[in-house]
Amino acid sequence: MEKLRLVRCATVIAAAMMASTALAEPKGVLRVAVGADPATFDPAFNDLPVANGVDLAVMDGLFRLDAKNNIQKNLATDYAWSPDGKVFTVKIKTGRKFSNGDPLDAAAVAASFNRLLDEKVGSIYRGLYASLGQAKAVGDDTVEFHLSEPNGHVLMLLANTAASIVNVKAVASMGAEYGRKPVGSGPYMVEKFVGGESFRLVPNPNYAGDFPATLKAIEYTVVPEDGARMALLETGEADVVERVPPESMDAINALKDAKVINPPSMFSINMELVLRGPLQDVRVRKALNMALDREGMTKGILGGLGTPSVGMVGPGTQDELRRTFAPIPFDPEGAKKLLAEAGYKPGSLTLTMTCPMGRYIKDAQVCQALAGSFEAIGVKATANVVDRGTWSKVVGLDPAARTDNMGMVGRATAGMDYTLYRLFKTGVGANRTGYSNPKVDELLAEGRSTTDLAKQKEIYGEIQKIIWDDAPFVFLWYQTQALGVANKVQGLEVQPNETLVFDKVTLK
Amino acid sequence: MSIPRRLAQAIPTLFIVSLLVFFFMDMIPGDPAQMLAGPGATNEEVASIREFLGLNQPVMTRYGLFIKGLWDPSVATSFRTHRPVAVELAERLPNTLVVAVGGLALGLVVGTISGVVCAMRQGGLAEAAITVLTLAGISMPIYWLGLLCIWLFAVHLGWLPAAGAATPMHFVLPILVVATRPTAMFSRLITANLLEALSKDYLDTARAKGLSETRVIIGHALRNSLVAAVSVAGVQFGGMLGGSVVTETVFGIPGVGRLLVDAVTRADYPVVQYTILMFAIFFVLINLATDLITQWLDPRTRDHGRTA
């Protein structure tokens, strides 16, 4: 009897193993409910994490990011810089095809990049990729980038979904419809797109890469209202729901067959200061930083969906280059002392802040709490909570044109160079604080031109240390993601930039 | 008054609306290029996107293009999707109309029936119940009622899908929820008008002809009460198009209302401008339709039209 059971057990295990080796056949339909409505999947214009996930599944890049934002080769087999750092050469896999059967050769890759860089196309990422210069196909399997300036961060740029390879021929014939049914070479393709309502991905029969489709279909439903979206998980109409609000986490965790997962997010939320008047004094900036009980705020206001900052850039922003520091202590007394040292009596300093509503988790409430905390160290602070249009206008102004003293902004970019160069280099048109430090400028230029990882690590470590000490921001926290996932979903991964990764997803 | 003449009269109205939507959109804060570029963009990148979107052209040129877009859809494209706004609207409009027309029709039928019941059974239990329900229907915010209905019918009872628009079943809850307000309004209105009409002499004439009480009410009293209901229905229908913004967000229906909200938050000017203009055209047409129906129901207004 005992033996028989053992035998039976062994058969079950063997069957299970057979099943897992036979997994190559895609099966099951994953249903995902998302809050944001992707207007386009065209990587040159998309700016939503939902569509990043679709682009990752539907298109191939030369490189890609894994669930931890580490760079992996995808179409690329090898790469090299020219000795002067001006030409970056990538060898690609041969014999690959787009989902419509068109060949994906070096010429197609070069055409895709030249489209992204073409001023007439008007891509929102043209500036970001401008340093790629021009792409040239050499034979069938080699692409050369003739860089407009030496850039040691090309890999990071190429691994982003914005650099996914687009079938330029299909774009020419489809026009704007390409944004709905993009022709790529990824494991899936968009089968159906109903604007504002739903879209469906199915396996791409022409796929020949390393991340084959595991699911028969991925069905997305767009439901902007939080409560209604959560209800879809409760009724079993969805297997994954995006953006669980803090107040719904307990209810979802109480469900029998679903729970909340909390992957880290690279979204670094800060009050970015305008470095003028009293805020030019580092003591005042430090005092503001010490006035906050970040631990209490992330628990009390964000419902746990935040981790107090230990550095300007969030986790997943090139972790190999990222440096973290001791959390800033909550020390109102010390803050008052610093203010006194800087010559400000309690009540003599008045600051205004600009905050968005509904852009970041509990942003408006956070701003009220910040005003209260500043009040407690004797700084009069007013929180201006404004609509999205006004907010993006104000935080996008040059420091000289700003009338407020700080603005709440979240930053999530895959690149260390991208983030730090834009935010802290003197005179760069995206530097909204007016921060200027010759040492940092020098290091940023050096870091951009070097291709040596060890050297980059040293340079960017030093920059991050200087920024942390100079405190041009009131550092707050990194947001934490919250997704409701049915227990039957296995292997779902989420990148720190909120992109869903379907590589290993199976349904039990 | 003839229909073509009425339509011609609407042209100045629509011209003023076009001016308002175009210039208000220009005045409200927010820069579409800045929003598309994101907070990490440099001034130069924003400027290049602004140039690409054509926002650097003189304001009169842009207004001219806006008007040209009314008959040439290729000029009027969304900033975000680059598809013609006409295509975007055509795709979303049926969903909005299904909910609005469905809600209005349901409200008209249920409201009329409950209104008649109320008028005929004054002081009864039915009247009390209907009065309470209509009061609730008028006062309940659609947003809250929608979430309550999702909880009851989708989560708790599991009868209907919670959100989305994939099948006809998905439209049942939104229509029910949207119908509450018109139902309540019509019910009240019909009751009040019927009660007034019931005391009129012409009903005694009808009864004296030997008609049954039901035929007296349906054929004579109700017909007169409907005149007021039709003009309210016109206003309600317009309100429902505006209210679609809320309903469509709660139930995840891809309609014009949500398209408009998304476009406003993303500063997609062309979509906002043409959508509002389309709503204005609808209002003009609805008013025309209400007038025509009223004329048909009430011969007196026809005579006024002729003598005037």
TrEMBL record, chain A:
GO terms for molecular function: peptide transmembrane transporter activity. GO terms for cellular component: ATP-binding cassette (ABC) transporter complex; outer membrane-bounded periplasmic space. Its main location: periplasm. InterPro entries: Peptide/Ni-bd, SBP_5, SBP_5_dom. The keyword DNA-binding does not apply. It is found in: Periplasm. GO terms for biological process: peptide transport. It holds the Pfam family SBP_bac_5. Keywords: Signal, Transport. Residues 71-392 form the Solute-binding protein family domain. Residues 1-24 form the signal peptide. Belongs to the bacterial solute-binding protein 5 family. This is Solute-binding protein family 5 domain-containing protein. It comes from Alsobacter soli.
TrEMBL record, chain B:
The chain crosses the membrane at residues 7-25, 97-120, 132-153, 159-179, 225-251, 271-293. It comes from the Bacteria. Its main location: membrane. One of its GO terms (cellular component) is plasma membrane. The keyword Transport applies. Keywords: Cell membrane, Membrane, Transmembrane, Transmembrane helix, Transport. It is found in: Cell membrane. It is a multi-pass membrane protein. Residues 93-294 form the ABC transmembrane type-1 domain. One of its GO terms (biological process) is transmembrane transport. Belongs to the binding-protein-dependent transport system permease family. Part of the ABC transporter complex GsiABCD involved in glutathione import. Probably responsible for the translocation of the substrate across the membrane. This is Glutathione transport system permease protein GsiC. It comes from Alsobacter soli.
